Protein: Beta-glucosidase
Organism: Streptomyces rubiginosohelvolus
Amino acid sequence: MTAVRPDTVPQQAPAAQAPFPTGFLWGAATAAYQVEGAASERGRTPSIWDTFSHTPGKVVNGDTGDVAADHFHRYRDDVALMKRLGLQAYRFSVSWSRVQPTGRGPAVERGLDFYRSLVDELLAAGIKPVATLYHWDLPQELEDAGGWPERATAERFADYAAIMARALGDRVSMWTTLNEPWCSAFLGYGSGVHAPGRTEPAAALRAAHHLNLAHGRATEALRANLPAAAQTSVTLNLHQVRPLTGSAADADAARRIDAVGNRIFTGPMLKGAYPEDLLTDTERIVNWPELIHEGDLAAIAAPIDVLGVNYYTPTIVSTPADGAGDTRNDGHGSSDHSPWPGSEHVAFHLAEGKPRTAMNWSVDPNGLHALLMDVAREHPDLPLMVTENGAAFDDAPDADGRVHDPERVAYLHGHLEAVRRAVADGADVRGYFLWSLMDNFEWGYGYGKRFGAVYVDYATQRRTPKSSAHWYGDVIARHALPPEA
């Protein structure tokens, strides 16, 4: 037998990963204030984010969403780009003040016409429209009347949901009530790093309850006005909470943050009750028996068809030793005020030995797998969908105008592999939406953080798909992850 030299043995190509389930939905997401622009066109009036971003000192560089990515005027080109990339679904949000400028009364048809046209364009391109009713942009007039800490805002939201269902229900079959109500309540009314910029712990907890109630009332309104086959959902940025050490004190810190970061929403929405430990942790701040009216919990627990899960990075916590200062590495912006009412003393930490994004968030795909498995075990009959996942990096075009973002490709590969593993381990995950389709206005960070798979030159509004956009298109075409290089 003739020996074969090792250097002549053909190298076996890496094997591709197992495919995702049949029917798994591939999409990308944006939010109205972050991409639309056209801030005062067709009758649109200011939202709390217009007011906040125009307030000096609130947003980096004084940036606003007045123009953003100009999606309002360029949506046809953007949909054509989505089609070229192979997207199967587009998750967009509706600007409440574009549709119902005062947050009350009849809709402005000119505002609705934009969303009608967007949906028609998506359907013509073979892309499934997924509508989110609220992504943080409360009409300013409702904030002037008290905002989310006031019960009436939840009732106004139900009216708005009914308007949208009647306008688009014949063409949109998947609806989300709220996106990340934790941010709306605790960053908007607790730490003040998001609009409307209030720093009132009691108001933050009141806002959380009324956002829960708004979700329930809106779900009822959607079901009353949509075809029976339409799906309703809510999207939560569930914190994948880990104690820093195995100590009892750190375990209690994790319990506390899980309560005010997660179970304050999953408890009433999915189980019909607030967790007792949350009520105890916060009883000195808000009078829960007075806040929760008869019938509220039943309304909040209106059944949904899908739970949206947003994940970017894990949350690692501890209880500082006596005399030690706490740290606010919670990934939610810098403020002298805590977004964790009742647990202000808890310290937050970055994962050791992990790469970081431009947001200084630890990259840890295992956190997504663990989170999906935790939710699946707790709610085994509820289908899940990853409705946001992505990363900001300091992207820039090269000399040829191309944008290479290998760090984002690696991030997405790791997190999609985590989703695939979760499915293999029994989690009923129905789809994945990349955050974000394109670079956009990144809230308090202005235009300095780029989450998009598509690069936006804000001076010219030119769109350039990054390497990650082409990579993601390949994943969609394969319905599986490519082999790692």
Summary: Residues 201-225 form the longest helix (25 residues). Residues 1-14 have pLDDT under 50 and may be disordered.
